Amino acid sequence: MEQKLRLDERQIRRAREAARAIAQDVDQFISERTTVAIERTVLRLMGIDGVDADGVPLPNVVVDHLVEKGVLNKGVAFWVINAMLYYSQEAQTIAEQVAGGTIDLTDIPPSDPRMIVDKGRELAHQGLARIRDNRLQREQLIQRLGEGKRPYLYVIVATGDIYEDVVQGKSAARQGADIIAVIRSTGQSLLDYVPYGATREGYGGTYATQENFRIMRKALDEVGEEVGRYIRLCNYCSGLCMPEIAAMGALERLDVMLNDALYGILFRDINMQRTLIDQAFSRMINSFAGIVINTGEDNYLTTADAVEAAHTVLASQFINEQFALLAGLPPEQMGLGHAFEMNPEIEDGFLMELAQAQMARQIFPDAPLKYMPPTKHMTGNIFRGHIQDAMFNLVSILTNQGIQLLGMMTEAMHTPHIHDRQLAIESAAYIFNNARHLSEEIFFKPGGRIERRAQEVLQKAVEMLEEIKRIGLFAALERGMLADVKRSITGGKGLRGVIEREPDYYNPFEEELRQQLGLPQREGSTYER
Length: 529
Fold this sequence. Notes:
This protein is an alpha/beta fold. It is globular, with a radius of gyration of 23 Å. Strand 4, helix 9 (242-251) and strand 5 (256-258) form a beta-alpha-beta unit. The longest helix has 33 residues, at 113-145. 51% of the residues are buried. The chain has helices at residues 9-31, 36-46, 58-69, 76-87, 91-100, 113-145, 162-175, 210-227, 242-251, 261-268, 272-289, 300-303, 310-326, 349-363, 382-398, 418-434, 449-471, 473-479, 508-517; strands at 33-35, 152-157, 179-182, 232-236, 256-258, 292-294, 334-335, 337-339, 370-372, 403-405, 498-500. Helix content is 53%, strand content 7%. It has 19 helices and 11 strands. The strands form 2 sheets. Strands 7-6-5-4-3-2-10-9-8 form a 9-stranded parallel beta sheet. Strands 1-11 form a two-stranded antiparallel ribbon. Helix 2 (36-46) packs parallel to helix 9 (242-251), helix 6 packs across helix 19 and helix 11 (272-289) packs across helix 19. GO terms for molecular function: catalytic activity; cobalamin binding. InterPro entries: Cbl-dep_enz_cat, Lys-AminoMut_A, Lys-AminoMut_asu_sf.
């Protein structure tokens, strides 16, 4: 990419070096731990699904059984595979018997460890083959149908009823949307289980369930054939079930998933230890599935001032990039987040927004950046709001963003109606078409306001990252260095679900994913034993 802003490459290298050290420090912490959500994910990838007589998901039943026995630190895979070998039964049957109280996994005589490892690899190959097939199907559909031009037009549906979401999602695709994001029901990120089946009663959004994923995927495939282009589906793998929902999305061919531990820590008060451990495994699944992740740096500017805190967004993007690389996620799947959130009353605010967007584009040239619309300073004046969104769209096409979450003129008034989305799509399509190649004609004045602003933000981000490197990410979060929100390392939701691994801990899916993604194996892996 042409470097239109003269940014100091030494500063960028310093930022990346600091972010890499921050991420590696956390990764060392992660390597010694697992969580109840990761273990439930292993069971889902083995093919275990459904609920017990009380409506509790079977993965929860099995994991809770082993937690109660105090043996989950060995890994759920060991216990379930041992039972499968002893009884010559499938994983689903074993889970159902645990739920029925007819077997205790810890009472079964141990099998030959080599047989357990062989069976584990077989199950990992089978489970990941389903995901690989979905990725291939996506690629074939895009090749046959084509797709929209970037920036992809990204719109949300949030009715609470999956079947009404289908109606609205199809309508948005016909209007020109490229990505349909189904917003999750309020508070689902705080549930330590995944609801089961199709749902019609969400509040502020629709429950993320595997059946709901399947229903919406089928609907978007249908409308994709109708409009002659592939329509992407987005949902959320964040919160206490981050890796489980990542696996469910991979199994149902979702294309984009919001996935950011920092967002969960700061804005949902998820325990930082829990969600950073969960994030590592979830991102390996996303990488293997070809799913583009979206990160939540844009939210920082809802609690902190967009002018003063711009560098925190950039610093977080650097950290998220390094976490993603450690999970084998390539830059092409990193939808790093940022937002058009400066107070419209500020003089030259548009220039500062342009500086931020162009700077991010140059620093992360291969990432399909996710650009978020104005929300904090929307007032209910729909005419001014429509203009603010138009300015946002203009910055996006000028700086070659990858994913454009469309602003709604009725932001903060109500959940968007179909006609709100249509106006948003029409505005973005008009501006993108009329200014399609404007970026090729635009250069920024050396030493001008835009360039100086970008250099200032970069410098502050470097200083912040080097301070976080010195004290560690956990301490930085406790001090409120991101988004002006302070969190405790032992506070928040989900800490009880963090478990220290035994030396012989076994997770065949993590080992196989690391093998497939070219990542180093964890110490004690059966690939090393």
